[in-house]
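Practice problem: predict the structure.
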Amino acid sequence: MNLEPQVKVGILTAKSIDFTLTGLYTLQTGEIVSGKQSVSISDSGICINWDGKSHTSIDLTPTSYSGDSFELEGVTIGVDFHWERKESQRFRGSLRLIAENGAVTAINIVNIEDYLVSVISSEMKATSSLSLLRAHAVISRSWILSMIQRGSPLSMPKSHTETRALNPGTSLIKYWDREDHLNFDVCADDHCQRYQGINRVSTSLAAGAVADTRGEVLTSDGKLCDTRFSKCCGGVLEKFETCWDDSSRPYLQPRRDGVDETDYPDLSIEKNAREWILGDPQAFCNTTDPQTLSQVLNGYDQETPDFYRWTEELTQKKISRLVADRIGENLGEIISLTPLTRGSSGRIRELKITGTLGERIIGKELMIRRALSESHLYSSAFIVEVRDIDDRGIPGHFILHGAGWGHGVGLCQIGAAVMGERGYSYSEILRHYYPFSSLTKLY
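Answer:
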């Protein structure tokens, strides 16, 4: 791979989309357009405000790649998360509008390196330490290129239902990953990588970090690494197979997020997990330093003050409703939540929910996080405390004491930020979070 590739990013899908072309854009017909535009879906295709015709797709290419941009209105960020909201976003590159499933989808076609400048500025502050920005540029480049190299573009995640669970019985074991899509490579939200255009690029540091690492990726056994990352591991990194399919990745393995990477207990054992989660063990990501956190967390991320250790309280009324709504089965009043299997970070892989009308085993970690929250629990690394048990043995409240934010696999963004502040180089950060991988220059 010698030339810089492009990536097709699915930004927005809606019945109608308003956008503004800042600069001159060329249609596939050769016509030049600019200014405020709107498109909508009809029975026959896409209708754009100025020509009265129906189209299956519309391609708009900037006459000046570096100077022209377009702004999309009403882009949803944080889909299904507690801080979900809409905002307007500006993008460089081309805009493709397609008719898809009874709606219009806006796709940004952009050079990989420009895409990365936005990704690392969207995932964190562009004012983060340079070593952190360089490390994130490498893993974001590795991930997107590994996804494209699989041979099929990607979409919003679809669910996989496993027929085999570690525990037999009434099991609902699902995981969500990036699946085939005919029209774009990745989505623009947390399901893939946050990509919020050029709105978040507030300093030259992000662009400099991407330029400094141009073409650099992580490889293992000659193949691009699937470089996952999350906000906070909670002290120990999780294994890939706890969260997704059971094919292990040698570079996504358990280790302490600290100086001594081998110093951690077996958190798959319930007693150890309880002590670890209720404790306050040292780790890179165990920090309350506001300067470090402000570099890693954008404004809406900082609306969540707790991430290393957290507590969630669920009333009986709320948890029974959530379980019924989220797994699609009424188990009645909930009697107990019992972890059956845990991963290396203490994240629950299988959880048995017992109710007055039956029981169900659910997993993997994202399924558990969705089942017990209106959006998502911060992680599935939690222990359960019950309170106010009535004379029938039914708890009035469930208190979840948890650790970490996200799936905990691969780079821990808070931990990496602390490493950057302590003077670690980007290659040292990468070696810490992705052992048995090599830094390789592709182009």
